[in-house]
Predict the 3D structure of the following.
Amino acid sequence: MSYVSSYLSLMHSHISFLLQPIFLHAFSAIIHLLLLAIVLVSWLWKKIITVGETGDDSNNKHQKPLNNAVLRKTTLFCSLGTSAFNLVLCLYSYYFLGEKEKEEEKLVTHLDLGLKTLAWGVISVCLHKSLLLFSSGDDRRRFSFMFRAWCVFYFFVSCYSFVVDFVLHFYEKHVTLPAQDIVSDVISASVGLFFCYVVCFVKKIDECVEDHTTDDLQDPLLLNNGNATVCRNASGADTVTPFSNAGIFSILTFSWVGPLVSLGKKKTLDLEDVPLLDKRDSVVEIFPTFREKVEADCGAINHITTLKLVKLLVLSAWKEILFTAFLALLNALASYVGPYLIDAFVQYLDGQRVYENQGYVLVSAFFLSNLVQSLSQRHWFFRLQQVGIRIQALLVTMIYNKALTLSCQSKQGHTSGEMINFMTVDAERVGTFTWYMHDLWRVALQIVLALLILYKSVGLASIAAFVATVVVMLVNVPLGKMQQKFQKNLMDSKDTRMKATSEILRNMKILKLQGWEMKFLSKINELRKAEEGWLKKSVYNSAISAFVFWIAPSFVSVVTFGTCMVMGIPLESGKILSALATFRILQGAIYNLPETISAIVQTKVSLDRISSFLRLGDLQSDVVEKLPLGTSDKAIEVTNGNFSWDPSSPNTTLKNINFEVFHGMRVAVCGTVGSGKSTLLSCILGEVPKVSGTLKVCGTKAYVAQSPWIQSGKIEDTILFGKEMDKEKYEKVLEACSLKKDLEILSFGDQTIIGERGINLSGGQKQRIQIARALYQDSDIYLFDDPFSAVDAHTGSHLFKECLLGLLRSKTVIYVTHQVEFLPAADLILVMKDGKITQCGKYADLLNNGTDFMELVGAHKKALSTLDSDEGKISNEISTLEQDSDFPISQGGEEEEEKKDEQNGKTGNKGDEAKGQLVQEEERESGRVGFSVYWQYITMAYGGALVPFILLAHTLFQVLQIGSNYWMAWATPISQDVEPPVSETTLIAVYIALAVASSFCILARTTLFATALCKTATIIFNKMHFCIFRAPMAFFDSTPSGRILNRASTDQSSVDTEVPYQFASFVFPLIQLVGIIAVMSQAAWQVFIVFIPVITISIWYQQYYLPAARELSRLVGVCKAPIIQNFSETISGTPTIRSFDQQSRFQEKNLKLIDRYSRPEFNSAAASEWLCFRLDILSSIIFAFSLIFLISIPEGFIDPGLAGLSVTYGLNLTTINAWVIWSLCSLENNIISVERILQYTSIPSEPPLVVEENRPDPSWPSHGEVNIHDLQVRYAPHLPLVLHGLTCTFRGGWRTGIVGRTGSGKTTLIQTLFRIVEPTAGEVVIDGINISSIGLHDLRSRLSIIPQDPTMFEGTVRNNLDPLEEYTDEQIWEALDKCQLGDEVRKKEGKLDSPVSENGENWSMGQSQLVCLGRVLLKKSKVLVLDEATASVDTATDNLIQQTLRLHFTESTVITIAHRITSVLESDMVLLLHQGLIEEYDSPSKLLEDKSSSFAQLVAEYTMRSKSTFQKFPYQ
């Protein structure tokens, strides 16, 4: 028995030795030494065995490093992290915890930690160099057996140490275990488990990777997950986001986005690098289902209400919303764990310990709550952003689809600018609201939790705290209401400004020609001033809200502690600190409440606006009865048709329309200006509401509008318009539309990119491309709305012959025309007057008995009277020309085509297509945003003078806040047994004084900040807009308006509000972070041992993340413009799109553009949370380390109250540290808006508007003589000359006509006259003054022009005729009467104040041209230029215009470019240009006398066409 007892005693002594720390450390040191030995032997063996085997080793010379994302990143991170951790622990043990231990224990501990540091460092190198790997037969790379065995053994040893230290000693009351041992065990066991998994279960190390011979030490040490690995040789655009199939670990840590962040560090990210969206987030996938739900719930989208829209949007993402609600609840609960435990922690430090190891339990609780708070917040934010992106995409799609079905009447109630705002502002605001989705109920929950904690700390005084909180919230209510009002008015004023800006950009050319740009800039500035008024009110209101936010904790604290003093509730430091921490959390809830309410109201306003837009009336589906081809012998049949653009109006637009069109017929529609010709075509298209009657259409339709609608993109794509390429048919279409020569001139041919609205094409080119688009569709019915007005005589006859009489000979064609010579070829002619078909029949029949028709024909004959008088002189030329059909007469498009050709790179290098195209991809900066951008922004207002005062005010506020909390922690006793150092009155008085002083500081800061914000926004807006309006016309030709509008709206909004607050959210928390560090260091300066490396790692992470985040943010901006531009183009081209039944194709394109925009936005959100999660973890480590230190130091070594204060501040460390780094990244992303605007403040400017020392006399030009001497012009320095030394004189008071072939230089000469293009050499002198020596405004304001494309601005008749408000009503009426519009305007209810809709859509093209004539009649300039000015009017109206000009401009110099030769024939002189040189310049009569002159041949061609009946062509 004694033997057994002694044996058990011996066994117990052995077992107890195995449980001693010295044994555990020694054993750990041995196994790490063993690993070092294994590595050394392995390395030596490789060296020995490979000597002399260079030949065999050639294939392995560059041995592949560990390339799998899991192994290469995660294992490297773990091994380096473990090494660094053991180094820190070694230093910590050596300097702070050595005195309690015996010498031998100290030595063994330090040896163990030192060997661990070395061993794990060696493992890192080995992993990098692949020394622990070998190639197996199947060419897979695996860890060596020795290393796998060591990892398994190490894991079991770590688990053993963990069990011994934590479980056994937890119950051994006599054993005091150092905290660092527990932490070391946890880390070792975790690392061991991870390495066991890697070495035992990861099989394919080299899967989906390329051979890398670069130094992988440059690769980031990032966590990743095998499921999230992306093949390196696949572009992002070919792969779906790794998020869709990521593992749980990858999702939790956001490691799935790691590869993209890593790629962004190595190269500038392009859209091709960004993975595709998951099908759950792709609007292409989710919209069809959503549309079905809308139709099931509402029947039709027209019946949708705001409530139903909200319901449908919520149901589309209900799972994510519920999940985020759970996360928000978890986050709220976790956030109050810290304040709840602070009192217990302070009591523990004071020696009042409830149970053994209570400190470790408290530390664990603090750490776990931080971890849960971080994880829940990160995923809560990310999932809500994901929902927001999805909802925004759905709304944008709905708005776009609605715009495609809107009736014209509904469209008139909303300008394109307003509709774009629905998409860019309202939909985005609804998407952003998801951030605030759970805030309302969270505030209520936080208040309840706060009151419970306060009740535990201060008893009934918590009621006073509740009342104070309610008071603060009530103060916020009126502030929130005012903010809501200011925001609404701000948005309305922004809408108005953007609408005006959009219109001005669209018509910038006419503004510059007329010298109006500065007047319209002042109009924009006035609108901006109104906007700034609301912005200032909003900003200063926000300043007051910020003041309330910052003083709220102090106010609630004063009330609560004052109540405690009155009620006699003892104030103890632990309870005080718990209350302060609670107030700090409440601060955020209180502050966010008005913002949340404001967001709710703003979102409701946006939803109301969107739903009201969606409820607008669509096109009447019963206007046209569509019949399948072959079911009727009639292509079009209208019976008793009455149609009106405004169904509510008693006067219908078209009355009693009756006609039939059989298949294959050609029908011509003619009539005077405003008679209803274009409306008749719109009726057939179903665009005009039907009042009564029937309209049947049998077959597919193609439509060519009077005003060309051309999409931006390649010419080929524009012509194909969604059809597959049929090369033979394509070539025939090009030939028929005379486009071959144009495409040969363009260096990129049909691959030339068309600018916005076809800005880099001439009027003739746009019209012919539009005709080609219609021809290629091979439709059954063709509707042409006067397409020949934009082309000259030869091209017009060619188009008519080759298209209408050639390719379309078997089709049904209805064409509106003002050219009488095209009427005889029609099978049926409809004559219209005042909205009625007054006559109907064949040409010959109408000649015999048609009065209205005879008016038109008579006007045409009158116009030909000049030619008739010279008939005998040129009859020979006519007969000659009839035999010579190849004579190259001037083609449609005029010299403007030549100008556009030069811009499109006519002489450019075809090999450099991207650079040669006029319209380039939008520029985006790459790399880090330059310091100069920050500096310019900061110093923009008052030279940056306010910035130091703002920083000083906030620093003082922070110092006073810390001082007040320090005072409360120091001046209150730990418990009731301790005598307080000061009386309660002094305690509260000092606290109140510090709180009041800090309040004044914050008030000063918020006021100064608001002032600087407003001033900066104003300056940057004025600079950008001034530079845009002063930019040369070439800038607008090559820059789509969507890009400019994006800067004027989205980027300017960002500068107005987001950028300054991003600066504030970085700088102010940074000051707060410094304060937290100071407080924590004062209690435990040793925290710096961990803090410095952790902050270093945080900064490294931030620098690592920034390149990707920056480029993703830029991509978001770049991808947004095409959506806006496509929407803008769709709005203007809706009738054309609908006529071709192409709505579905355009909807699909829009869906793809939205997904293209959502991709970088989604990944940007994920990358942001990727960074924040890592920063949260690092901050939690600092906090946990400081807590471990505090519980490890001997009792009484530090004041428990001050230690508790450091914990109170430390609770915010995680949030503040992550917030500072995240704000810095966010600032870098948002500052891109400033960078983009500053790009536009450095646009090269036109010459000065006014040259003070060389201003012409007010009466200049008095005579109007134009002398041109050796004029040479080119469009760019690298392009050839367009005008080659012209010398001629336009006599004052004479009428000069300019003619010439395509590319001859006509429009360039006119543009040079207005200095739209500056002369390269030579000069233009008007009445003795060189136009290059005076200011642009002095020049352009003294000249007049009627452009080819008539321009009208939204507003009234008065401000369209007199934008500068220089004339009286009597003068305006006189001008209207002269241009034949007086009676038309008098019929209107508003007279001169009658409304003009956007683009003058409620006026016909001819009427718009007459308004342009009215402008020049008012101006009465001595020099007048007519650039195809009568192209859009009938011959009779043209005759009236010519008569008016002859009557009122008898003493003016009139320069005319015209397609109607009659206009030129009546000139005093004719200038004929050829390839930039003067070929002929003489009077028309002399030129006609010379039968070989080019001008005589041109007149002969026009005469031949005019007298032709087009009835003997072989096509018929």
